[in-house]
Amino acid sequence: MRSRFIFCLFSCIIIGGLLGCSPSKEEPSEIKAEERETNMKAQEKLQPKRIADVFLDGDYEQIYTHLSKPFQNEISLKQFKKTGENFNQGVEAYYLLSELPLTEDTVQYVWTDKQETKGMVAVVDKEQVITGMRILPLETFQETDNKYTKTIFQQPFEGDWFVFWGGTNKLVNYHYEHKNQRYAYDLIKMIDNQSYEGDSSKNESYYAFGENVFAPADGNVVEVENAIKDNEPVGSMNAAVPAGNYVIIDHGHEEFSFLAHFKKGSVKVKPGDHVQAGELLGQVGNSGNSSEPHIHFHVGDLPDLEKGKSIRIQLENEEDWMQGDTVYGIGK
């Protein structure tokens, strides 16, 4: 089964590391006591959505018994407790931000504290084994987080789409660390928690591939690329031309929308064209630095991907998309 991690324009870091601790030598008596303690918890069930609550409550043994064996080999219960106690200082509560299917058998959960200054990620399989866990401080950019576009944008798609990357911290949106794409969205189509059916190496197997992409607001087309071939086999990427095939639209107010990774030859507009919201731009592809067919959508203050600064998108109906959301486009 193909693991699902979307790359777009920049490479992302796959979550799955440990807590930043390395094993240390312990006395045999300490090891035996630790084993007895963890064995007492081994029969208890842990609800994945409550991992952060249990962690904050200090029931580290309960979580530790659900860590995979390779994970437990990397960190002892004693180290896990110490790390948790230090990290939880000053935290009143953790809030579940995202629930993201990674494969048929694994789901990734993301929590942050209220201020989004501390974050936690856990990857859990269908047997409730925690195969990956990460806790880390988070950087925020509150000044730009609270500044939205003057233009109101609609969804650039029709039907139901899944937000794979989106939100205002790097755990739910890897773009967030890059000021030129900070508020970007990556969207895929999903059916039964899968983005494809059949041969995962072929673009045509993906539900998103070939779907229509529409102008998200009125504006003038300023730049287009339409000749970059789609990546195949799926999973290979073209970092030399990160955006692949793309359309950039000037909406006024120094606001430029970027829609990227179009299917080769599918773009229907050219520089100088005036487009209206909902007008067809082209079709979803897998060109550029993209690991599977999807829509990349962001707004910047310049028609230059590298030099511009991303602006948080004001969406219709005061929507604010987050990783894990299913969002509804034209016709819904």
TrEMBL record:
Residues 210-299 form the M23ase beta-sheet core domain. This is M23 family metallopeptidase. Coiled coil: none annotated. InterPro entries: Cell_wall_metabolism_enzyme (IPR050570), Dup_hybrid_motif (IPR011055), M23ase_b-sheet_dom (IPR016047). PROSITE patterns: PROKAR_LIPOPROTEIN. One of its GO terms (molecular function) is metalloendopeptidase activity. Pfam families: Peptidase_M23 (PF01551).
